[in-house]
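note to self: dont lose this again. the chain is below, predicted strucutre after it. 409 aa total, dont forget to put it in the shared folder this time
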Amino acid sequence: MSYYDVLIVGAGHAGAQAAIQLRQMGFEGSVAMLGDEREVPYERPPLSKEYLSGDKTFERILIRPVAFWTERNIEMLLGKRVKAVDPVGKFVTLTDDSEVSYGKMIWCTGGTPRMLSCPGAEAKGIHGVRRRDDVDAIMARLDEINQVVVIGGGYIGLEAAAVLRKFDKKVVLLEALDRVLARVAGEELSRFYEADHRAHGVDLRLRAMVEKIEATDGHVSAVILADGERIPADLVIVGIGIIPETAPLIAAGATGGNGVDVDAYCRTSLPDIYAVGDCAAHANGYARGAQIRLESVQNANDQAKVAVQHIMGQETEYDAVPWFWSNQYDLKLQTVGLSTGFDQTILRGDPATRSFSVLYMKAGKLIALDCVNMVKDYVQGRAHVISGAVLDQAQLADASRPLKEVDLA
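---
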């Protein structure tokens, strides 16, 4: 049985940052990163943007060059998957029944795309967008397909739709709720993006429920809606969220429900096991203390640093301000803070100019911003979200006044 002082399970953003941070902080023990893909760590956000569009090659989205990991004596255990954890014996069992023991373990497995469960969902030609293989399979068929159905009006679905319109594909986007981005943004932003996608030729349907998938010779040929409408499809992309990859930890006794629960130092309830990134549920100050998972590169990187610092004897609690981004057409959306629970919005600027911000307020405090082609608002608004100060609302609404110059109320 091989042994590592720190075993990192998961080779995405969080796992890569954990390994990098260990070496940057002078950790000299043995480190291994175990991942179920064959590739060394790479960036996930470009998969539905620059990689799918062909603007970036795979080599350009690697988090570090291949040689980086060897030079820092970080062993890569790729193409492997953990099926069981023994927190008492401090070892994991892999799907090939081999075992790996550890001194400390950092669980960074993220999640798997939530796929369709309706009749016909097993047909070929239905893809998630989470891994290189997913996007490679889509790209391999671009020349032979014409009509694409995208299921899900979150960031993944909207980004994929935007790229496919660049390739002049017919795109029907189906969202089950009454607006896109409903779980992460207010109505002003949702309606803006709906209008923009429609202006770019996307047939965007709201309150659209998928009943079943129709297949011909085992391959998807149409999506059938609950009202009976048949939408032809050469290819289907599903962007309806992820399922956290935490089953082995939960089976081993870790506390969790929607993900695995961690404390302020990213420790699970199991000894010497940390969890970070998309799979880690934590009490977040920017969500007013609610136990949440954050699916973002920022969260993955910042939690990885906190876990490693704790391993190295530095007790630094996780309190990073959340931020996200999305690129669609010529629109760069940057978000800071969490808008959940807002009681008021302030529109700053004119959406018709394709450059504006939506400010989310709660009890007079700025808790989040969605900035569309407004980099200055994003940069300057961050400080207000962190401060929690009550600000002058008339000044907030005045797009000619820099946010850094807004007075207290």
